Each structure stands twice: as C-alpha cells, then as structure tokens.
Predict the 3D structure of the following.
Amino acid sequence: MVTFTSDNLVCERFILGPLEVNTYIVYEKGARECLLIDPAEESQTVAKRLKELDFSEITIFLTHGHADHICGVEFFRREFPFCKVAIAAEDAAMLTDAALNLSVYLGEPVSASPADIILRSGNHLKTGSTDGILASIPGHTPGGMILIFPGMIFSGDTLFAGSVGRSDFPGGNGKELISSIKKHIFSLSDRQVFPGHGPETTIRAEMSDNPFFGTFFNI
C-alpha cells in the first residue's frame, strides 16, 4: 500500500491482479464514507484495510467496464453488503456481460450484478465535505470516466504516465480519447493524476512530456 494526501483527502493505492491494476481507497480524513476505485481482484488486504477504517458508506466507482477493473466487485459486495457500485451508463452492460468486458476472451469469464448507480458526465461523488466531479472520457471504452478532486484526478485507463489508454478494443476510438483528454484534463490546473495502471503523474508532466500530445500543450 502507498498513501498520498492532498489537503484533507487521502488516497491509498493497492496494485492488484495479474495486470497490476491500481485499486484505490479514497476518503476525507475523519469521514465515514469512502470511494473504492476499480477493485481488481478479491483482495483480503483491501477488505481488511476498509474494515480498519470502519466506514459506514462505501461507493465502488468503476472508471470503466473492462474485466481487469471489475474482478473484485462481487467479493466486496459480499464483504460490505451496504456498498453501492457506480459506473457510467455507456459501460453499465459490461458488468453483466463477459463478452463485452472482454473476460470471455481471457479464458476466465467475469460478470457481476448490475450497478446500483448509473453515472453521467457532470455527476458528483464525495467523501465528507470533499466533492469530486465526473467527466466522460470516451475512447478506451465508450463509458470511460475520470473523477476530479481539487488536488487529484483518477484517470482510469484514459491517461497514464507517458502514455494513453489503448483504443483498439471494441468501442475504442483513439481520436476521441486524445480529444477528450485535452478537453477535460489538460484544461485543468495542475494536480496529481492517479491512473489505472503504472505510477502516478501530474497534469503538468503529461502536457509537457507525454509523446501522444507533442509540444503544442507545453506549459
């Protein structure tokens, strides 16, 4: 586990599953509710940490519907029956369909019950008094979403340190992905970016050095 903080907001990162997905617990210090982002496997380590923190509300936020990001959903539903699962409308069917979430092609089909919360761009997720806003970033999947807090962004598989998400899967669109990142991420002030795989980065670093965007966006 690696911990990051920004003002009162805490982010704890766990690297889970064979594809090394970043699963995050995000909460405001002293709050009773948290966000669990992209639970990638049935992790007793993450479950134990959630129990230690003793939250009364847990929202599982799925940045998109690919199998490697949803494998732990039903486990955490069993461990925390009060939790709610949230995903964008465009990716909601991927939760219940192993072909759509691509797991059927990996030899181990994965499916989950339907989401409790259907998200759309502009919706909010919060912990305590800290409010995050959701923005649609299609291109990796039709319903890819980022979650924007004042000091942090959770970018899923849209933007990575030095790279961007793949767009060659069904429903992908490379031009749309690049355009959406420029519009919804690079238009923001600098803050930490926590991707679905790999190390954290910053908006400033990606505008300056990410080879998918050239030099036009240097600051």
